[in-house]
Write a structure and sequence with these properties.
Double Stranded RNA Binding Domain, hpI Integrase, Chain A, 406 residues, 4-stranded antiparallel sheet, 3 domains, 18 helices, 3-stranded antiparallel sheet, alpha+beta, DNA polymerase, domain 1
Length: 406
């Protein structure tokens, strides 16, 4: 394989393209040119049958001759049976005095210090870097600006990873925040991830509305549900969702300690709500009866709906339990657990008996005006109590009339 193919004149004359690219010198050494015109020495080699990459610094601060010396030293270490990565790991832990820390080194240093997250979360973040930011992982932090980072993130956006690209940008931002606090080792003066506005930079998946039955077909659905075994948490959960207007996630994580006023009110903490605002759910007599049934079966779990298997009382019911039940009833694609919210919104608005603000508040659609939101919460609670009981009674009556018509 040809070696020493580059010259100082050629290195100096290389110009940036829209995407990063590399020009080989030989024996694994190459110059990596970024869209911001920065150039870095990197070396590809194999260790234990796996591809590895070493970073030797930025050109022209690190000359062609110095890069070749570093390459030859690494090759000599390999021949002696040494692991070049051990030296690289030591650099990460010791934090070198020259500002040459790579994104990979900073990533590991940051996540090693995050003792407040689970091992699984840490592994997911590191894996995201390795999968989607691999092209710039061995580039010194100070060589990565917004344009360089966006090249990699746009690949994810083009692959329609709309949610995940936002998460990777956030994780990259955390690492750069850490790097800003260690400028002597990273050379970082800006956070390029913080300069990216996700809502403008990336696409979004089409919003799919949750399937919901029309009101006219609801009594038949309730009659079919009545044939199901009440011993299943999913059956009682589906009924309680109908009576509380909450989201599936909120019902799954419902805890006994959240029930107040003798079980007539459910206070959901702000941390469990989509809009991060505490929510009150008045419980109708029918809802209280379901909760009483669940109380009689309580097995020590803090959750009102623990895992149906009974083996893991520290976990809530599966997120798909209600959806699987609905499919088994023959309504797959026609109804969802979340669909109850559309149904109850339609019923309450079409009845013409309730203030629209009271309806919106019961659906936990947060008022943008914070002062008005607090006022609405206090002003409309009595009306919401009446509305929730009226709905439960209407549902019972409509189901009973449907049975009589049959």
């Amino acid at each position: 394989m040809p070696t020493n193919r580059l010259s100082d004149k050629r290195c100096a004359g290389l110009r940036a393209n829209e995407k990063p690219y590399k020009v080989a010198d030989g024996n694994g050494l190459y110059l990596y040119i970024l869209p911001n015109q920065k150039k870095f020495w990197r070396m590809a080699y194999r260790l234990g049958g796996k591809q590895q990459t070493a970073a030797f610094g930025e050109y022209p601060e690190v000359s062609l001759a110095e890069a070749r010396t570093a390459r030859d030293k690494l090759r000599a270490e390999k021949r002696q049976g040494l692991d070049p990565r051990a030296r690289s790991a030591a650099v990460t832990v010791a934090e070198p005095t020259s500002p040459s820390m790579t994104l990979r080194q900073a990533m590991h240093a940051y996540w090693q210090g995050r003792t407040d997250v689970s091992d699984g979360y840490r592994r997911n973040a590191i894996r995201a870097f390795e999968m989607h930011l691999a092209a710039i992982l061995d580039v010194p932090m100070m060589g990565i600006d917004r344009a360089v980072l966006m090249v990699e993130l746009r690949r994810m956006d083009a692959a329609k990873l709309y949610v995940y690209v936002r998460r990777v940008r956030m994780w990259a931002g955390l690492v750069f925040d850490w790097a800003l606090e260690h400028p002597e080792t990273t050379g970082v003066t800006i956070n390029p991830a913080a300069m990216i506005k996700p809502d403008k930079a990336f696409g979004s998946a089409p919003v799919k509305s949750h399937a919901a039955l029309p009101l006219t077909e609801l009594p038949a659905f309730m009659r079919r549900l009545a044939f199901e075994n009440d011993a299943l948490h999913s059956v009682l959960a589906c009924r309680l969702m109908a009576l509380t207007w909450v989201r599936t996630q909120e019902l799954r994580f419902m805890e006994w300690t959240e029930l107040e006023h003798g079980g007539t009110m459910w206070r959901i903490p702000a941390g469990k709500m989509k809009r991060r605002s505490e929510h009150l759910v008045p419980l109708s007599r029918q809802a209280q009866a379901i909760i009483a049934t669940l109380q009689s079966r309580r097995n020590g779990s803090k959750y009102v709906f623990p895992c149906d298997s009974g083996r893991r009382i520290d976990r809530p019911m599966s997120e798909n339990a209600v959806l699987y039940l609905i499919g088994r009833l023959g309504y797959k694609g026609l109804m969802t657990g979340h669909g109850w919210r559309r149904i109850t919104s339609t019923w309450s608005n079409e009845s013409g008996q309730y203030n629209p603000d009271a309806i919106e508040r019961q659906l936990a659609h947060t008022e943008k005006n914070k002062v008005r939101a607090i006022y609405n919460r206090a002003q409309y609670l009595p009306e919401r109590v009446r509305m929730m009981q009226d709905w439960a009674d209407w549902l019972d009556l409509a189901t009973a009339e449907s049975a009589h018509d049959r």
